[in-house]
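As agreed, record copied across for absentees:
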Amino acid sequence: MNTTQKPLKRSIILFMLGFLTTLCVLFSIITYQTFTTAIYRSYNKRMIDIVNYVYSHIDIEDLSTCVETGVESEKFIKLITFMDSIMEDFDIHYLYIVKPVLDGDRNGMMNIISADTAEGRATDPDGYYLGYILYDVYEEKDLYVYQDALDKNTISFCKNFTTWGYDYTISKPLINSKGEHFALLCVDIEVEDVQLAIRTYTALCIILILILGIAFSILFIIWANRSITEPIGRLEKSVSAFAKSSHSQTDPNLLIYNDPHIHSKNEVESLSEAIGQMTEDMRTYASNILEAQVQVEDMKNQVNYMDTVAYQDALTHVKNKAWYDNVAMRVDQDIDSGTAEFGILMVDLNNLKKINDTYGHEHGNDYIFGACHKLCVVYEHSPVFRIGGDEFVVLLEKSDYENRDSLLSQIKEVFADTAVDEHRSPWRRYSAAIGMAIYDKNTDRCINDVFKRADSIMYQDKVASKAARE
């Protein structure tokens, strides 16, 4: 009896170990690949939006002249300030414009603009200047990767090692009117942060699977030892009878062990109970698998939530410039199909710099948040976007489009009343320049045409308001 038990026990243990190992490997691969794809897809979309947003604020010809002459223009200085603001507003590692220098003897990377945070500017106010060439920072193969990206006409992705770390980089070539690829606009995120999130989630899933698998394996081995290996010899006749009765059975629902109702606690009764317990164990195991699938779905929902957060302005909680760009593509499709009917409202807050300089950035944020709230209350049926530090856009459609004139008068009255209310704190006396433009199918070819008109009207309003105050 002992000689037959040992091989059977060993076979069961080896089978469970192999099953558990296979399960862990398969789930690990699926989990890692799924989460990696979702994370990088999300980061790609976000980085493309940032690159395109920065690119839209670059005067290509002016920047090309600066690179060629090595002299910083006024627009160049403004571009540095703008890129610094992007570093403050978005969770990225680096934002910069460079040009690979491949001379053969000594290769390097020419710095054009390196954005930095306010804290970084305070600790290192000079930074890298225009035309400064970095040697021994990039590996030569990485310099050729950047050069290859510069030679292209489209956005490129790559991973590279530098003295600043291991980064995932998206780059877009800057091409002047002569067709010269003179510089490369780049955004970096730290690969280690992304991979740490992926590894952490994968490890948690593996641990969960291991715990469930080990628990089930232990229960199964104990059950097999007590209920199969010991009584198998004496239950041969009962098992044979069950096999004969089931031999020609085609209905799986009828393949049920019939309890002989033996109350002497013999082997037949134990086997019947063990088979019943095994059925319950398998149901429990299936429930655990379904529960693991639910957890995977929860993680997918969390990734979707991360996408939503990426399109929301952190201060005002309205949509940001990236989301406006998405909505703009939808509106352009409506224009192409001939179904568009909309207006654009541009709002630029007055006195924000004065509030920041006099009362601090905290009250400056209060000023932005309060003004945005007034805007959202009046335009409660329209999406509001914060596209800059003190700039907002409202897309007027449906009921707000139909009532656009009355709503325009209302929002102007709101800002006019709060601006002169002496009972309010200075940072709650909201004032803004406003411009509204309506889509004209005879002249407007895209939403940007309407946007530019609204921006021009808003600018005229700001100039008139400033002249009136003076």
Q: What stands out?
A: The two ends are 107 Å apart (CA to CA). The longest strand covers residues 165-175. The chain has a mean pLDDT of 81.
